[in-house]
Amino acid sequence: MYGVETQRLSFVIERDGMEGAVIFAKQTYHAYRAALKLSRKRGCQKPHHATLPEYREGFVMSCLAFRKFIRENKNV
User: Fold this and answer.
1) CA-to-CA separations, 23 to 28, 31, 62, 66, in angstroms, rounded
2) What are 17-41's pLDDT values in tens digits?
3) Is 69 within 8 Å of 25 (Cβ atoms)?
4) What does the alpha-carbon distance between residue 44 and residue 17 come to, in Å, rounded to a whole number?
5) Strand, helix or coil at 23?
6) What pTM was estimated for this model as a whole?
7) What span, in angstroms and rounded, lies between the C-alpha atoms of 61 and 52?
8) What percent of the chain has pLDDT over 90?
């Protein structure tokens, strides 16, 4: 997994357990995907971090990390 998200998920696992971490990963994944779908090209008038090129790759990488974590723990 990717560094920052590994640390975040480890923290959530310690704090809330594996079930809580899976819920967190699903919620965050869906929020990041929704943010990535918005862009100026698609009618979003207010730019935000996920629409800016310097941050977009980080959002994509985080989505990949969360999706991998969710798949690895789908039986939780």
Assistant:
1) 9, 12, 15, 11
2) 999 999 999 999 999 998 888 766 6
3) yes
4) 37
5) helix
6) 0.85
7) 15
8) 61
